Amino acid sequence: MTNQPRAEYPRPQFVRNSWMNLNGEWEFEYDDEQVGSKEKWHLGNRALSKTIQVPFAFQSKLSGIGSNEFHDVVWYRRDLALPEAFQNKRILLHFGAVDYEASVWVNGVLIAKHEGGHTPFHADITDALQEGINKLVVKAVDYSRDVTLPRGKQYWLAESASIFYTRTTGIWQTVWLEAVSAEVYLDKVKITPDIDAKQVEFQFFIQGTDIQGKQQLKVEISFKGKLVSEDTYWIRSGSGTRKIGLKDFNDHGLGSWWTPEHPNLYDVTFTLLIDNQVVDEVTSYFGMRKVSIEDGKLCLNNRPYFLKMVLDQGYFPDGNLTPPSDEAIKQDVELTKAMGFNGARKHQKLEDPRFLYWCDKLGLVVWSEAANAYEYTEKYVSRFTNEWIASIERDYNHPSVIAWVPLNESWGVPNIQIDKSQQQHALTMYHLTKSLDPMRPVVSNDGWELVKTDLFTIHDYEWREGVLSERYSSSDKAVHAMPANRRLFVEGFPYEGQPILVTEFGGIAYKKSEWEGWGYSGANSDEDYEQKLRAVMCPLLNSGVVQGYCYTQLTDVEQEINGLLTYDRKPKIPVEVIKAINDRK
Predict the structure, then answer these.
(1) pTM of the predicted structure, to 2 decimals
(2) Which tens digit of pLDDT belongs to each residue from 389-432?
(3) Quick one: which of 189, 440, 435 has its CA closest to 290?
(4) Which residues 6+ apart lie within 8 Å of 122 measured at CB?
(5) How does DSSP classify residue 530?
(6) Could you give the count of Cα atoms lying within 13 Å of 475 in the half-sphere of its Cβ?
(7) Rounded average pLDDT over 165-184
(8) Which of 36, 18, 19, 17 minimizes the C-alpha distance to 27?
(9) Which residues of 58-81 are buried (b: 16+ CB within 10 A; e: fewer)?
């Protein structure tokens, strides 16, 4: 048993056996006067005065600090000794996420700079290493008060309020090392399923020395422990594409498609060989599933599929943006399913890959949403675009991810209704996303003021059952309603028959813990809460127009008490009752 925080493997869709987790105690220092660079802290010769538990940000209790003060420049330091198994290998240093800018040194050598608070990065540190003890130093720079920064729900004022929560500065996802072949290794693989053609496409990328004509890639696919395909290909360049037919895929997919109800996964092993000698091996998985829109219907695997999602903010009482454990991540997925939901709209956060792994494995669809800025500038456009591209690349292979949501409620584009530049930005995000992933629907601006979009999504916190029933009795009434007194589409981008979904609603406040807070409406007893849940959910279930919904929200978060669960994940009423409502019982 280990006391190391977040000790599990951090990248479950691309697994190597040779790795080392660097979470745990690091030296730590605030640098409010910004003297660290001048005094050459990056050399690692100066001991830092504090300690912190990585991967928890200093604002969280689990970091061992738990301060909500503004400290926008912070430094980390630790000694690093490599295991014997890493000898004669190339060593890659990985960061799951550092908010917002990161600079990384090994033995005083700058090995990486990265911008983007939610996306991963890595660097080859081999040439900077020395025998014995190595010095690893990280400088993180945040911009806590900058409202043009892609930040999600992190508040730019001192204390949380309204819909905004505690900030995150610095390392907040796992730091780890990986040993790969000194000659050549598999950098990444892009996996695209095609249930209609009964095949899967692998686009692979190779890093390392060019050994023309001597490299081979062996691909083994199995399903429920049974080998279904085994092929070996010559590698002629640093990248390539292969399509592999799945011979077991012969029963209309009913036994092997991926759905939330039947989360079937194929296992795959990639083995890289030189002169028939293994130099790299990676294990992964994929799901055979298709998301499409057919005759105005949202379909999963060519069949209409009604989405019952819950809004998931991804915050935890002691870890803030960082889940305290893998078990806590899994529990959130299990509780979501136990309440009868088949999906989660991950809100204003690119979630830990372990969350998507459990959604893949246990069966929960995910709408992946960017952490937005709040105001629009040209600098914001550059920052946001780069981070969004990296987000799509990171999560493309997950079968659970069925939709991309770059913008929410005009965050970052507050004048989109009248500002042509902001309209073009939203359009650019739509088309850019489609260019990187043509197989998933894209929502240009979830909630209201939509431009080009694949799904027509509405945020509506009306609590009166009769009003909701009337509003969603026809598509014409739905798309011309003005919840929150906002137009649902930008002039020039009218409704074109897209599937209609209500992707935020409910938000019923019910206090069942020591936390005080607010919601969009309220309940004062278990019976009242159940009745009000039925009053907002049943009109959408019975509409005939609405093709899915997303209830606000999974848990209470800080000053918000509108969760189905308390902040510490206790159901406010029995999960079976909520499931019965979702199941129309």
Answers:
(1) 0.95
(2) 999 999 999 999 999 999 999 999 999 999 999 999 999 999 99
(3) 440
(4) 92, 93, 94, 95, 112, 178
(5) H
(6) 14
(7) 96
(8) 36
(9) bbbbbbebeeeeebbbbbbbbebe
